[in-house]
């Protein structure tokens, strides 16, 4: 489901719908506060949480990949623990690219497993224990900010710079899992993701609310030797904000003849892909999708669809590195 439009209103004028839903929002915020106040498992190695305050996609997966690569470059053995959203396995189970499907472990764990060991576990504490037993010297907890079952040593809060914190209200009055002030109080570093225009918008709307270290980052496409300029494409994406993917393709010079926005994590059935293939042939266009969607493709379509990978660029790691040094992760 797409979020309601009033969620994107400014915090200064959240709208009558938000006001009407504010009693339910207070109940939701109270329930979250009670849940996160619980004390969970204390791991034997540092645990870094990559989470968010917003519901939906903010860029946690590319942030996790960037952090994994940064830690590995420093000589560490990071393992990622995920609940495996969209997968049916309870775990803990280590994700194997050639053995598991997105229907079993979720699409994001399959993507991240190309970079480091990944554990899917509905019970996060059990997943962390499995990672420790298998040799991890640091665990990255994917999307665990509001999950109290594991104690965190460092929490990175990820936000989409353009959307910011929406109308500043908690679900269902707005897009937030908890109030901004509460989330900031439990976070260590805020990472806003977007280009210069988006970052300026975030600063204007939310700069005064940021009470922790703030890093700016941007998703950049990887050039894989494919010539996008003038290429007719039919793009499809089932991510949090597919329009950003479509804008990236346009920015690369692709001739975007059709943009098919799917539900986040939507299964890519053979019937859906056959329809898209027929449409692409009629348009004389190349099928293109994201890395996260590509892991859900039926086997017969994996050679027919081009993937556009992106990576998160963090120009200044100093504030994160200071926390890593504090945790003995020099």
From TrEMBL:
Pfam families assigned: LpxK
GO biological process: lipid A biosynthetic process; lipopolysaccharide core region biosynthetic process
UniProt EC number: 2.7.1.130
Keyword Secreted: no
Entry's Gene Ontology molecular function annotations: ATP binding; lipid-A 4'-kinase activity
Domain of life: Bacteria
Binding site residues for ATP: 54-61
Catalysed reaction, written as an equation: a lipid A disaccharide + ATP = a lipid IVA + ADP + H(+)
Keywords: ATP-binding, Kinase, Lipid A biosynthesis, Lipid biosynthesis, Lipid metabolism, Nucleotide-binding, Transferase
Gene Ontology CC terms: plasma membrane
Pathway it works in: Glycolipid biosynthesis; lipid IV(A) biosynthesis; lipid IV(A) from (3R)-3-hydroxytetradecanoyl-[acyl-carrier-protein] and UDP-N-acetyl-alpha-D-glucosamine: step 6/6
Enzyme class, broadest EC rank: transferase
HAMAP family (UniProt xref): LpxK
NCBIfam families on file: lpxK
Family listed: Belongs to the LpxK family.
Purpose: Transfers the gamma-phosphate of ATP to the 4'-position of a tetraacyldisaccharide 1-phosphate intermediate (termed DS-1-P) to form tetraacyldisaccharide 1,4'-bis-phosphate (lipid IVA).
Protein name in UniProt: Tetraacyldisaccharide 4'-kinase
Species per Swiss-Prot/TrEMBL record: Celeribacter neptunius
């Amino acid at each position: 489901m797409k979020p309601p439009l009033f969620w994107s209103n400014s915090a200064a004028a959240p709208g009558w719908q938000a006001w009407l839903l504010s009693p339910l929002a207070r109940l939701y915020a109270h329930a979250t506060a009670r849940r996160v106040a619980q004390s969970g498992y204390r791991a034997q190695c540092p645990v870094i949480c990559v989470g968010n305050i917003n519901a939906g996609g903010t860029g946690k997966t590319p942030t996790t990949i960037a952090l994994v690569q940064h830690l590995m470059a420093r000589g560490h053995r990071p393992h990622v623990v995920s609940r495996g959203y969209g997968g049916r396995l309870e775990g803990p189970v280590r994700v194997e690219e050639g053995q598991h499907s997105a229907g079993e472990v979720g699409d994001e764990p399959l993507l991240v497993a190309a970079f480091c060991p990944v554990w899917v576990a509905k019970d996060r504490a059990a997943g962390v224990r499995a990672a420790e037993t298998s040799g991890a010297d640091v665990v990255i907890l994917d999307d665990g900010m509001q999950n109290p079952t594991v104690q965190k040593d460092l929490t990175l809060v990820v936000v989409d710079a353009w959307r910011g914190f929406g109308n500043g209200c908690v679900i269902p009055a707005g897009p937030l899992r908890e109030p901004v002030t509460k989330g900031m109080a439990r976070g260590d570093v805020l990472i806003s993701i977007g280009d210069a225009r988006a970052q300026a918008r975030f600063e204007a709307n939310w700069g005064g609310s940021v009470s922790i270290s703030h890093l700016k980052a941007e998703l950049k496409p990887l050039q894989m030797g494919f010539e996008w300029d003038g290429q007719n494409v039919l793009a499809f994406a089932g991510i949090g904000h597919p329009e950003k993917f479509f804008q990236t393709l346009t920015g690369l010079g692709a001739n975007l003849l059709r943009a098919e926005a799917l539900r986040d994590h939507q299964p890519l059935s053979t019937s859906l892909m056959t329809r898209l293939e027929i449409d692409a042939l009629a348009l004389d266009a190349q099928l293109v999708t994201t890395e996260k969607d590509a892991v859900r493709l039926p086997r017969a379509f994996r050679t027919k669809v081009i993937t556009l990978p992106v990576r998160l660029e963090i120009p200044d790691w100093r504030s994160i590195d200071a926390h890593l040094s504090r945790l003995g992760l020099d």
